[in-house]
Each structure stands twice: as C-alpha cells, then as structure tokens.
Amino acid sequence: MIRIGILGYGNLGRGVEKAVNASPDMELKAVFTRRDPSTLKIATAGVPVYAEADAEKMKDEIDVLILCGGSATDLPTQGPKYAKMFNTIDSFDTHAKIPEYFPAVDAAAKEGNNVSVISVGWDPGMFSLQRLLGNCILPDGKDYTFWGRGVSQGHSDAIRRIEGVQDARQYTVPVPEAIEAVRAGKNPELSTREKHTRECFVVAKEGADLKKIEEEIVNMPNYFADYNTTVTFISQEELNEKHSGIPHGGFVIRSGATGDMKHIIEYSLKLDSNPEFTSSVLVAYARAAYKLASEGKSGAMTVFDIAPAYLSPLSGEELRKTLL
Amino acid sequence: MIRIGILGYGNLGRGVEKAVNASPDMELKAVFTRRDPSTLKIATAGVPVYAEADAEKMKDEIDVLILCGGSATDLPTQGPKYAKMFNTIDSFDTHAKIPEYFPAVDAAAKEGNNVSVISVGWDPGMFSLQRLLGNCILPDGKDYTFWGRGVSQGHSDAIRRIEGVQDARQYTVPVPEAIEAVRAGKNPELSTREKHTRECFVVAKEGADLKKIEEEIVNMPNYFADYNTTVTFISQEELNEKHSGIPHGGFVIRSGATGDMKHIIEYSLKLDSNPEFTSSVLVAYARAAYKLASEGKSGAMTVFDIAPAYLSPLSGEELRKTLL
Prior knowledge:
2 copies of one chain form a homodimer. By secondary structure, chain A is α/β, with parallel strands linked by helices. In chain A, 34% of the residues lie in helices and 27% in strands. Chain A is built from 11 helices and 14 strands. Chain A has helices at 11-21, 75-83, 98-112, 126-137, 153-160, 176-183, 192-195, 210-218, 236-242, 274-294, 316-322; strands at residues 2-7, 26-33, 49-51, 64-67, 87-89, 115-117, 141-147, 150-151, 165-174, 196-204, 228-233, 248-258, 261-271, 299-301. In chain A, the strands form 3 sheets. The first copy, chain A, has a 7-stranded parallel beta sheet with strand order 3-2-1-4-5-6-14, sandwiched between helices. The longest helix of chain A has 21 residues, at 274-294. The first copy, chain A, is globular, with a radius of gyration of 22 Å. The two termini of chain A are 26 Å apart. At the A-B interface, helix 1, helix 3, helix 4, strand 13 and helix 10 of A face helix 1, helix 3, helix 4, strand 13 and helix 10 of B. Strand 13 of chain A pairs antiparallel with strand 13 of chain B, so a sheet runs across the interface.
C-alpha cells in the first residue's frame, strides 16, 4: 500500500481524499492543516488530522505528501520546504513562475533524496502533455487551447471585490465558431476576444447600482476588458441553486500537416468537478512518484518527465495485454 | 543529427521519409529494400538505396532503423532480427500477438544493447496512451474506442478477393448515436453492430453477378457479418477519383466518475493520410529511442514506457517554458 498524506483540506484536499480512497493500492495516512486540527472533520473515518507543523514527524510513515495549497502564496514556500522531507505532488499553476519554481523544488528534492512532481492537474498537466505530443508528432502545425465551459474562481473573486456585489459566479466559455474553424483545419489567428466569452452571474446587494456594477465588470482590465462579457443579475437563491457546482473543461487541438495532408488531433475534457478531476490526476502521479522514488530517482519532475506506465497499478505485461 | 534508416519503402516508408525530412534534428541516411535497389526511386535526392541484406554493414552509420514492414509476415522476423543490430521502431499492430512479440524483441535488443520501441503509431500507439491515462486518472469508468471514418486496408483486400470484384474500398464508420451516448456519460453497453458501420465501394468486373457479390460481402464472417454494411457499385474511374486517399481517425473516450461527479475525457484524430500520420509518430519515437540509447538504456519498450519529453528536440527547460 502506498501511504498518502494530504496537506491542506480545501476543495482539492477533499478531492484527493476521495481519489485515494478509490485507489485499491493506496491508503490515506494523515491530513495536515493550518487550522486547529481538533476543529477539522474529514470524510474518512479513522484517519488522523494533524497540525501542519507536525508533518515532519510523519516523514517515515508517509510515502507521498500531496500538497493541496494554492499557487499564489502556499506552494512557493511549501513546495521546496516539503520536497526536502517527502516525495511530493503539487498543482502549481502559475505558468509564468514555473521556470523559477522548478529549480527551487528540484534542489530541495535532491537534497532530501525525494521525487517531487510539480504542476500536475489538467492545465498545467494533461493539457500540457497533449500539447507536447501534438508538437512532437506534427512539428508543422499550430496549437490551440480553449478553456470551458467552466467556472473561473479567480474571475468570480474579482467580481466579488466590486462594491455592491454580494456574490458572483463567472463562467469561461469557448466560442463555438472558433473551435469549429480550428477543427476544420483553417488554422485561424484568433484574438483573445475571438476565443472565449465570459458569462457573469451576479448577486447585487440591496440598493446597489446595477448599471455601475456591470460597467465595472466589463471594463475590468486583464479580467474582462478583452472579452465579450455578459452580466446577469440573479438572486442569491438562484445562484446557490443553479451555480453551486465547479464544472470545467476545455480543448487542446493540434492542427498540423504532413506536406499537403492535414491532420487534426483533439483532446477534450468535460468535468463535473474541476477540483475532483484535478485531484484524480494528482493521485495518479502520486503513484508514479512512489515508484520512481523506489527506483532511487530524485529531483523535481513534471508530467513531461514521467513514462505513462508509472501512473498505473498494473505491470508492464498487463498493460501491454489490456491497453496497448 | 540523428541518422535514420528506413527498412521497406511502401506507404509507411515514404511517410517516414517525409517526416524525417521535416525534422531539423534528423537526417535520412539510407533506405533498405527487398526489391532490386537499382529499380527503386525514392523522393529524397542523394540518399542511397541498398538491398535489405546490406543493412548490417550500415550498423555504425545509422542511429535508428525504422521498420516499415507489415505486422503479418515482415515484423515477426524483422523485429527481433534488427533489434540485435540497431535501435529500432516498428508499428507492430497485431494486438493479440504483442505478448509474444515484445519478449522476442526485448531479448534481441538487450543482446545488441539497443532500444527497440514496438507497436508505435496511433492504434496501437497514441490511442493506447490515451486509454492508459484515462484508466489511471479515472479508475472508476469505462473505455470506448471508435475507429473511422477511414479506409480499412484489410477489409478492402477481403472484398477484392471475391470473385467478380475488380477493385474495392471499404470505410469503417463510427455510429454517431453511439458516440453521442458515450459523450453524454450514459456508459452504454455497445455491440459490435452498434459501434461501427461499414461502407463498401465496389468496382465489379464486366458481367459479374452484383447481387451475389453483395451477398458475399455482407455475410462474410468476422469482416462484415456482425456489422450493418452498405455496398455501392461504382466505376473504376469514380473509385480512382473519389476514393484514392487513405484517410482515417477515431475516438478514445474515457467516461468516468468520482463519486457522483461525471467526467468525460475524449481524444480524437482526423487524419487525411493514415500512413503519413503513423509515420510521424514513428519518427517522434525514433528521437526518443536515440536519446534513451544514448543514456545507456536497452531492451524493448512501448509508448507506455517512454517519458513524453524524450519525443521532443527541446530541452526540459524549454518545454516547461513553452508547453507546460
């Protein structure tokens, strides 16, 4: 049994717990939290909850620690810190900072003789893998990544910070015509506006100026100004009822050619729960980290560096027989 | 430069030649043929053509030999034979015989201290990889593979063997309703007949009994009897004009769940030329074989055993920066 620890018990941590419990070769050993451990009720009976500060003491009882913190403030310090003590998996997704995050985790993991797989999930993660494969198979081609239809937490938060807004949910939606043009092999040049639209469902506080809220949303730089954005005001009840899920998904398309022959490779995800799917990817890579560490490997890795067979509980022989 | 040799100059060999020439880090060193080399004109100027028997003499001038023979009779002997002399790539696709082919190639490759990647292409190959990923990420789920719309060479050949048939082309076509049901997460149990239909375009010899030909086709065991099959008689001119391409493609769908949350992973290919796409995959894995052999690895491998980064000419740092 691969003994798993979870650091951070938010949406992602709860998803990891579910995925570990669904894996017959894994066992959830402990959950670590920054909250007071006595106040945290977790879903799995009999699994202890400890303060984060106690994690190091469990070094020898945990094979892989899955870091379920956020990329903005948690992982930049947690990643290198825990890579010294444990094999780790994280979902670090600040693309622009990966070039500095990777070497920091790599040095720590090598010091601790551990394997640390960074930036695991679906983007970065499975989408990255598909972009790499598409580029290598069809070097003469163009990449397209579309996200959605799905909830963007960052954009929802940005709306909630506007004066007069009580609650909000933002969906990122790929433009169907853009996807169709790409699928048809037309290799269009697409602006930000042509690729995605943004749908905002907003609960206003009583007496708030709706017109002003809408203006602030659609003109918000970086978040909304470059997109066609729709704003719909609804009640808190309707938001709770119809928009409480965290679905997401998207498309990675490689449109390439060999001479005058055209080829389209498309990978898509349609996910009822973004954090639960991400967690499932993290847990598959936890298995890989465990196996790689058992072979004596160490250092930071990404999905690019791991042979797919490591993700599976099956032997090479079984895999060739059943899935090749 | 990675020096590539091609063994066998049919559709696949020509596709490999094209893909190698499109790869800036590769150089086509020689083509080997069973035909009289003096009769074979290849597309690339200045590249020598040799008899297959002379391949061994080129051992030290070729980094990877790409075996472009067929799975029925060529590869079962060529695979182990050349794995002793060269790093090799092949597209062995007789799924049922992979469990005996792999160890034969493995032993030979280890003896020769070479890396031999078997069963590369899109199925087996990219589709296998997607099946593996889907199974590892969503262990609670169901796999669906659909092929087409595309030309099946084996089925076309089977029709051509019928008395009174002059020429024929067979398309395998996935049933749209079946794909839709899978995409909708309905997890249907699909019979052979419910998954694919078969479209046959047949040129009859003059005076042939069309009724009899049609009967023979639709009732042919294994090939057509289990499918809804349509037979359309056309002229040789129409066949040449409208059905001379070798398009193919298909879909791998993993329909899975985490508790009551449903997730659909879909991978699809739409290929103008089946052999040219297959060749492009072979060439990407030739790069991987070269790199793995340079690291001192040896033995048989499949797409399951190779970390994706090996397929790329870019460094780990460049990959993380541009594709992660």
